[in-house]
Amino acid sequence: DRKSVVVRSYNGIHDGCVLLSLHKWFTYKYIAKKYLLRFEIDPKWGNDSIVQTCEEDFHYTTSRWTAKRARECALELIRGKAEDQYARLRDYCAEVYRTHPGSSIYVDTEENIFRRMSCCFAACKEGFAAGCRKIIFLDGCFLKTLHGGQLLSAIGIDANNVIFPIAYAMVGVENEENWKWFLSHVLSDIKVPEVCEGWTFMSDK
Question: Tell me: the pLDDT tens digits for 23-63?
Fold first, then answer.
């Protein structure tokens, strides 16, 4: 009483056409959404592994460039856009002040555009004053994000010779102006006297 189809014979070996190396529907966005949970568990999932997984699951050959774009797209879906994160820096500062009273965060903007930020948590101030030596190590590294920039850090040494984070800063470029700006806040936060007798400052150079 209804329309139906009956399969009487089936040949499981298909060799009548050649699979194309690229398909319009198999884009980096499709890969990102298809393996979103996998990217969330392993944000550093490698390009070669992504390509191999696509070949195993779909018998489809993709490129390493498409795999790279898929990872970037998936991480953006999971974490949000970088522009949206910068727009919420004031909310981040308010939350730090609420959960860590006594912390110090300085955000420098120019015409409502982010320039640099320095942060020193209250626990770091108290811990450094209570059990760290009078030595501060300074270093900077590149931020591997779409907008770039540099991360500056001030690190101490505790009584067990273990590194102790004091403060960090995000700046556009590592130069004398930004280092002075960052260090002025660090010295003020941990209450280093103007005459730094007995204090040692060591840079990566």
Answer: 677 889 999 999 999 999 998 899 999 999 988 888 888 88
Rounded Cα gap, residues 55 and 52, in angstroms: 5
d(CA 150, CA 26): 36
Q: What's the whole-model pTM score?
A: 0.67
Q: How far is CA 116 from the centre of its chain?
A: 16
Q: Which two tokens stand for residue 132?
A: 């760290």
The predicted structure's pLDDT at residue 97: 94
- Contact 45/39 with Cβ under 8 angstroms? yes
Residue 195's pLDDT is what? 67
Residue 20: band (very low, low, confident or very high) from pLDDT cuts 50, 70, 90: low
Three-state DSSP string of the chain? CCCCCCCCCCCCCCCCCCCCCCCCCCCHHHHHHHCHHHHHHCCCCCHHHHHHHHHHHHCCCCCHHHHHHHHHHHHHHHHCCHHHHHHCHHHHHHHHHHHCCCCEEEEEEECCEEEEEEEECHHHHHHHHHHECCEEEEEEEECCCCCCCEEEEEEEEECCCCEEEEEEEEECCCCHHHHHHHHHHHHHHCCCCCCCCCCEEEECC
- Measured between alpha carbons, how far is 156 from 146 in angstroms, rounded to an integer? 30
Residue bearing the bigger pLDDT, 3 or 193: 3
72 and 78 Cβ atoms separated by less than 8 Å: no
Q: How many CA atoms lie within 13 A of 141 on its CB side?
A: 6
